[in-house]
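PROTEIN FOLDING TASK:
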Amino acid sequence: MNTHPLKIHIDEIVPLTDEEFEYVLTHFSTVKKRKYQFVVQEGEKIDKEFWVIKGCLKAYFFDDNGKEHILQFAMENWWVTDYDAFTNIEKAKISVDCLEDCELLYITHENREKLSKEMHKMERFWSKKTKAGYIALQNRILSLLKNTAQERYDELFEQYPQLFQRVSKKLIASYLGVSRETLSRFQD
């Protein structure tokens, strides 16, 4: 029997018995989305958090001048949503859409809260994932503020080389906060 990829993911932080995992899994639903489809759309009320089984997504917003700003990419085993909207059940300030055909699991805010109350292990899992996400965000902000564009590029390539095979140079440039022309100079 193949172990479910979500069980492997959770077990890295809090080992679950097969019975515990089966119960956890009943709180999730599977959804398939095609390339360019939204999973979160700015202005819509959000109550779902998504875990990527297969595919690649981007979380982003457009500024008042129409410039796209990418906050996050999400590949296999990554979580993504508008966390402010998800946590407070509010309208999204960002959008998340598929860069490839995607297979996702999602959990509603209500089911996540229910699992956290019922299972200390899952509460601990989400606590650790939240802290890891906060640390990653802090490191991204620090990198944007103190590193050169070249250093940000090198850092991203070192951390996620597979991203460069799956995401266009235009989107990588947007994520790094540089022009497409500047990005091309780094790759020469």
Residues 5-118 form a domain with the Jelly Rolls fold (CATH 2.60.120.10). Residues 9 and 77 are 7 Å apart (CA to CA).
